[in-house]
Every structure is written in C-alpha cells, then in structure tokens.
Amino acid sequence: MLAVSKKAGNLIGSEIIRLAGEINEKIKQGQTIHNFTIGDFNPSLFPIPEMLKERIIYHYQHNQTNYPPADGVAELRESVSEFLSHHGGLSYSAKDEIIIAAGARPVIYSIFQTIVDPGEKVIFPVPSWNNNHYTFLSNAQEIIIETSPEHNFMPSADDIRPHIQEAVLLALCSPLNPTGTVFKREQLEEICDMILAENRRREGKQKPLYLMYDQIYWLLTLGNTEHVDPVSLRPEMRNYTLFVDGISKGFAATGVRVGWSFGPAPVMQKMKSILGHIGAWAPRAEQLATADFLRNHQAVDEYLNWIREQAGIRLFGFYDGFKQLRAEGYQVDAIIPQGAIYLTVQFDLKGMRRPTGEILQGTDDIMTYLLSEAGFAIVPFFAFGSSRDSNWYRVSIGTCQTETIPTILHKIKNALSRLS
Ligand SMILES: Cc1ncc(COP(=O)(O)O)c(C=O)c1O
Is 1 a domain residue? Predict the structure, then answer.
C-alpha cells in the first residue's frame, strides 16, 4: 500500500458518487434503472443555453487559451456584478468584491481555507451537501444541526443559537441540496440578526462569525417561491457573508465550470490567492462566453423561464404522484418542491415484509428494494449527513424524461403493493 498523508488516508469519498457507480453497473448489466441519484443534468434533456455554447466556441476560435487572471477576467467580473444587481438587487464591485473560479466547489474550498483554522468549529445543518468534506479538509471540527421535515429541513436561529459562540463559520444553502426547499424571509432574518448580535459581542476581540451562503440554485426557484439572501435582508451582513454562486445549476452548465464568490474585499482577495495557488480558474474562453451570455438579459430570461418550467413539471409530476399514493394508503410522503432540481420523498417502509419474506430493516434495504423492484434509484438523506435511520430520500430530476413519470410511479406503486 502507498503511504499517504493522514488527511488523504482518512478522506471519505462522496456517498452519492459511490452509489451512482453501483447503479451504473446495474445499467451496464442491462437492467432498466431510472437513475435519479446524481445532482446533474442529462445534457440532451437540459442543454446549456445555445448562446453560451456559441460564445465558448467563438472564444476558442479566437485563441482565448492563455492563463486568465487569478480573480477572473475583468469582463466576467463586470458582467457578474451587473447580473447580481439586475437579477438579485445586490451591489458588488467587479474590482475587488467578486472572484471567479472553476465552479462552486473551489469557491467553497477556498472559503473554508480562508476563514477556518485547524481545530476551529464550523456549524452546518444536515441534510446538506458536502459540508462534512470541506470541514474535514480544513482540519476543522463540525457542529451538526439535524433539521426536521416539519420545518422543510431548514435550520432555525433557535437550532443554531446554542452553538454560535464557538464557531467561525456557519454554512447555509438555499434552495437546499438535497431537499429542494428554501429559507423563508423571517427564518433567514432571525439567523442574520443572531449572527450580527454575536459579531457585536466579538467586536475586535475574536475572529467574526462568517456565513457561507451557497445560492448555487437561486435561479431555479419554482412558481411564486422567493429567493432570499442575507445581505438584501440585513445590509450589515455584507461584512460577514461569503456567497457561493455560478452557472452550474441555473444554466445546466455543470461541466462548463464557471462559478463565483462575492463578499467583503479583504476575504475575496485572500481567496483569490488560494485559488491562484491551486490554479482552480475557469478556462478563459468559458469566462468570456459567460460574460457575453449573462449580459444578454433576453437570452438569460428565456432560458431561465424554460428551465424553471421544465424542472417544475418533473418535480410536481413526482410530488403529485407521491401524494396520490399517500392518499391511497401507501407509506410514502413528499415535501412540496420550492426550488433546485430535487424532491424530498419519504418511504416509511421499515419493518414491512418483502414478497420473499425478508423484512425491510432500514434505509439501505428500502433503497435496494425500490431499486430492484421498481428500478427507482434515489439517494437516502444519510448520504447528506442525516442519521442512518432517516427514511427520507432525494429524487434528482435532471435526468428525468417527463413522459416516463407515470410509468415510474406505476412501478413504485406495484412494488409498494407487494409489501405486507
Ligand atoms: C449546494 C451545492 N453547492 C455547490 C455545488 C457544486 O457546484 P459546482 O458544480 O459549480 O462545483 C453543488 C453541486 O452539486 C451543490 O449541490
């Protein structure tokens, strides 16, 4: 065995990617699997905006192939600044308050590296996406807050308050992966007020408590759902809020790798240095193309209207179907989808007996049963840090063909009706 660092040796891989690997294996063996595990899009169902694609090609054709600046090309920082003001009512300077990276992941990594010292505490709610890994990579200590379905799996100020004095970073996300639910205005206001009070208490004597606000799905809210952010609600939060954002989800451009952060200049400038050292820049041509695209309000609005509609059809197709199954007496439930590409579904099947006689002992058995009997592949919330016995699951619709939803629901109903 090769000797590696303790950090590398103790790293745990992503549960979701591991699960997806197992499922792909089944698909290769010829089984029909409706694979709704990975938080990505099938590009034939959800292609990136045509204009974005054309501009990427255009900029490569014009030899935009050398290093970009460490904080991103000026054109894109300016374009993002204008985009945030136009679509989000936020005012951030292209000069030193916005930095560009190769997607949201390096942004998150550099936020952790910039804020958190080894041994310090990071608070995050579960279920949530990958905060455990970034905390681990920073040699930090995690403070986990388990949220509940009654509150749409979003944390409240009261949940966080008991831990706040110990922490340097609070990691929040809305719309949330894996639940597809969002913060309500009052909920986030209370959290902001709590952070501001805590930072007044610390004033100068201690590093402030920062809020990482991951809004990578904010362009994908459904219907009348409102996206709220800390700085619009409480302008004083500007000093403490580090935003995570980019084109990966809103424009179905997960493989294009353009993301950004915005926040107080001193923090952004340190993140720029870290990103520079790891070279996690978005390619220059993609940056220039994104700058061109984001400036075209008509192309952006048309695409967003289309993708929101497409996501909504699928999410509500499943939601209505699960609610119908519940009305028919099956042990399933779902939470009304508000955004992102995820539906939260409950399969309360523990203790039920398969036709072959075995009892479903817990989350893993339920997942395997749905996979083998209905070809329905989804991710249990424990993969997002919830407790092992949580019976809630994430359905990710980015690979779903709308026409298949009735068939899939029918297969699920059949599988459920065979349990006793
Ligand atoms: C909440 C959240 N933040 C960030 C990311 C990473 O985005 P990117 O692909 O831009 O690195 C994801 C990807 O699934 C996500 O779900």
Answer: no
